[in-house]
Amino acid sequence: PALGIIIVAAGSGTRLGRREPKAFVSLAGRSILAHALEGVLQLAEPARIVIVAPRSRLDAADAVVAQVAGAARGYVSVVSGGESRQASVAAGLAALGEAPRVVLVHDAARCLTPTDAIQRVVDAVRETGAGVIPVQPVADTIKRVDPAGAVLGTVDRSELVHVQTPQGFPRELIVDAYARAEREHTDDAALVAAAGYPVTTVAGDDAAFKITTPWDLRRAETMLRRPVG
Ligand code: CTP
Ligand code: MG
């Protein structure tokens, strides 16, 4: 397939505070990873998918593939991740092979991302040839504070956005940027930008929020029980 998707699911989920790694925590009866895989499989075009899982959970990830991917399972593989998210993405890139022209990197933890939000990223990569990230405006007022908590000032919100995933890139561009990366970056777009490549934005989606805390998990449960709209 011309599209490759890396689902990074190798984190431990420290802030969620469960015993099992976050991607294997149950959400409305199936794992967060199962929801995430289901979401990307709903794209209209076939995709080569690599799931990056904790080394201790490779069998569990295989079981998710068997359960969710059905006829598409031949396109899905599982590899083990690294200490950092960046190392996990690198493992996913190595496993993806050279066929995909466009590569998406997606957090398993954003498991309720709507298909059309994913499609927007794919389309924009093909249109621009640049890196593409889904973003949303910042809703709250943002302030700078000192270590003691005193307010230093209010930040101009008009220039700020929240960044989501999937982030999309022409394959050769993200592969080159990863080969040249000299330090940890906060996201793939920052790593790609540090290599000198352009990155642009498309509209994200409220439902693409990241499950980070127990509160986020409750929010996801509520969404699945009573879908909005
Ligand atoms: N991730 C990964 N490998 C790592 C760290 C993170 O594949 N070494 C993945 C997570 O599984 C998650 C995504 O990157 O899908 C976003 O990371 P985050 O939400 O921070 O997940 P965790 O690192 O697992 O959570 P925490 O930071 O609370 O420990
Ligand atoms: Mg983390």
Automatic annotation (TrEMBL):
Cofactor(s) the record lists: a divalent metal cation
Function, as annotated, reads: Bifunctional enzyme that catalyzes the formation of 4-diphosphocytidyl-2-C-methyl-D-erythritol from CTP and 2-C-methyl-D-erythritol 4-phosphate (MEP) (IspD), and catalyzes the conversion of 4-diphosphocytidyl-2-C-methyl-D-erythritol 2-phosphate (CDP-ME2P) to 2-C-methyl-D-erythritol 2,4-cyclodiphosphate (ME-CPP) with a corresponding release of cytidine 5-monophosphate (CMP) (IspF).
Catalytically driven reaction(s): 4-CDP-2-C-methyl-D-erythritol 2-phosphate = 2-C-methyl-D-erythritol 2,4-cyclic diphosphate + CMP; 2-C-methyl-D-erythritol 4-phosphate + CTP + H(+) = 4-CDP-2-C-methyl-D-erythritol + diphosphate
The site annotation (Transition state stabilizer) covers R15, K22
Q: Does the keyword Nucleotide-binding apply?
A: no
* Enzyme Commission identifier(s): 2.7.7.60, 4.6.1.12
Q: So, what pathway does this thing act in?
A: Isoprenoid biosynthesis; isopentenyl diphosphate biosynthesis via DXP pathway; isopentenyl diphosphate from 1-deoxy-D-xylulose 5-phosphate: step 4/6; Isoprenoid biosynthesis; isopentenyl diphosphate biosynthesis via DXP pathway; isopentenyl diphosphate from 1-deoxy-D-xylulose 5-phosphate: step 2/6
Q: Which UniProt keywords apply?
A: Isoprene biosynthesis, Lyase, Metal-binding, Multifunctional enzyme, Nucleotidyltransferase, Transferase
The organism's taxonomy opens as:
Bacteria, Bacillati, Actinomycetota, Actinomycetes, Micrococcales
Residue numbers for the site described as Positions MEP for the nucleophilic attack?
R157, K210
Task: Please identify the protein, giving its name as recorded.
Answer: Bifunctional enzyme IspD/IspF
- Gene Ontology terms: biological process: isopentenyl diphosphate biosynthetic process, methylerythritol 4-phosphate pathway; terpenoid biosynthetic process
Quick one: where's region 2-C-methyl-D-erythritol 4-phosphate cytidylyltransferase?
Answer: 1-229
The full protein's residues present here are 10 to 238 of 395
According to the UniProt entry, its GO molecular function terms are: 2-C-methyl-D-erythritol 2,4-cyclodiphosphate synthase activity; 2-C-methyl-D-erythritol 4-phosphate cytidylyltransferase activity; metal ion binding
Q: Which family does it belong to?
A: Belongs to the IspF family. In the C-terminal section; belongs to the IspF family.
